[in-house]
């Protein structure tokens, strides 16, 4: 199912839309936690702290938007309150593991340097994806005159992407060829996740 069409189906039904918001919130929160995990014990940049704080804020903002549908829905991140919970939980974790495996082979890094490289390349891949996902979601929200908005997240994610590119330029002169490899890994995982969400939405609508 084409992504725009999938989102149209999601926003039609309140509880499904709430699960979608909760799923995005879970992923933003998981991203924030991974950024914090990648921190060096002492050499932590202001930009890394900023990214973790903003991803946590996105998770909170998306969670708060659920209240516009029904304040009683999706209060936790338990499986019944997420779309495609297994694929959702695996997505970022699998990207992190596969990216680390590739980066270790490409750069032969020690543990702390590998953590930082993973932060750079995985966050870059996620920001590229966010740059594609959130504008389509906002378009559907606008088309359906929804009270829910994600425009503020779109602006911040665009800023994040620019910041990641600046950091990657400092990390390696040939970062783009390595980033392409990580983007290929992310694309495969994203497609699997979208397929799982599509199946879940079809079952919910059928039920």
What descriptive keywords fit this protein?
single chain, 207 residues
Describe the structure in your own words.
It contains seven helices and no strands. The mean pLDDT is 92. It is globular. Helix 3 packs antiparallel against helix 6 and helix 4 packs across helix 5. The chain has helices spanning 3-12, 14-37, 46-65, 85-107, 111-143, 151-171, 175-206. With 207 residues, it is mainly α.
Order of helices and strands, N to C? HHHHHHH
Distance between the termini: 19 Å
For the secondary structure, the number of strands is 0
Specify the biggest β-sheet.
none
Helical content (DSSP H or I, runs of 4+):
over 70%
Précis, in short:
By secondary structure, the protein is an all-alpha fold. It has helices at 3-12, 14-37, 46-65, 85-107, 111-143, 151-171, 175-206. The longest helix has 33 residues, at 111-143.
What layout of secondary structure does this protein have?
Blueprint lengths: L2 H10 L1 H24 L8 H20 L19 H23 L3 H33 L7 H21 L3 H32 L1
């Amino acid at each position: 199912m084409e992504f725009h069409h999938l989102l149209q189906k999601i926003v039609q039904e309140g509880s499904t839309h709430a699960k979608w918001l909760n799923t995005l919130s879970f992923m933003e929160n998981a991203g924030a936690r991974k950024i914090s995990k990648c921190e060096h014990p002492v050499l932590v940049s202001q930009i890394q702290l900023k990214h973790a704080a903003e991803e946590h804020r996105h998770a909170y903002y998306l969670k708060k938007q659920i209240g516009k549908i029904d304040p009683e829905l999706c209060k936790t991140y338990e499986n019944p309150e997420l779309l495609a919970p297994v694929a959702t939980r695996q997505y970022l974790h699998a990207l992190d593991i596969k990216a680390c495996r590739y980066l270790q082979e490409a750069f032969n890094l020690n543990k702390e340097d590998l953590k930082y490289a993973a932060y750079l390349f995985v966050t870059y891949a996620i920001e590229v994806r966010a740059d594609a996902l959130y504008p389509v979601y906002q378009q559907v929200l606008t088309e359906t005159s929804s009270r829910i908005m994600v425009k503020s997240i779109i602006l911040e994610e665009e800023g994040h992407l620019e910041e990641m590119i600046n950091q990657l330029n400092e990390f390696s002169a040939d970062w783009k060829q390595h980033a392409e490899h990580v983007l290929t890994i992310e694309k495969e995982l994203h497609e699997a996740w979208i397929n799982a969400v599509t199946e879940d939405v079809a079952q919910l609508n059928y039920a």
